[in-house]
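Priority: medium. Attachment 1 of 2:
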């Protein structure tokens, strides 16, 4: 029995494998690209491990930076809340700046 004949007779297996692996592949590639993980992106793009490597990346390796980013966002929000006068000064335009621009 040849491989083509086997795949054609059991097409449902191919469809199930695709339905299960494509979403994980897409999610892992998306996360790797958004986080700038070039090595992971290339590995996930080239290697087809039936979504095993994709699942490992999503649930283990991509989560490390999420906590760091959340801490940085919290610190920035705290800074933003503490200094309303400085914030207003930074974002307000003065008459001097308008005259120099014009």
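Attachment 2 of 2:
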């Amino acid at each position: 029995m040849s491989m083509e004949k086997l795949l054609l007779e059991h097409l449902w297996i191919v469809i199930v494998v695709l339905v299960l692996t494509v979403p994980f592949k897409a999610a892992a590639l998306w996360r790797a690209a958004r986080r700038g993980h070039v090595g992971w992106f290339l590995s996930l793009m080239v290697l087809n491990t039936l979504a095993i490597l994709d699942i490992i990346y999503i649930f283990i390796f991509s989560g490390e930076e999420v906590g760091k980013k959340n801490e940085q966002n919290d610190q920035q929000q705290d800074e933003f809340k503490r200094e309303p006068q400085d914030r207003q000064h930074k974002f307000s335009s003065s008459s001097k700046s308008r005259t120099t621009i014009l």
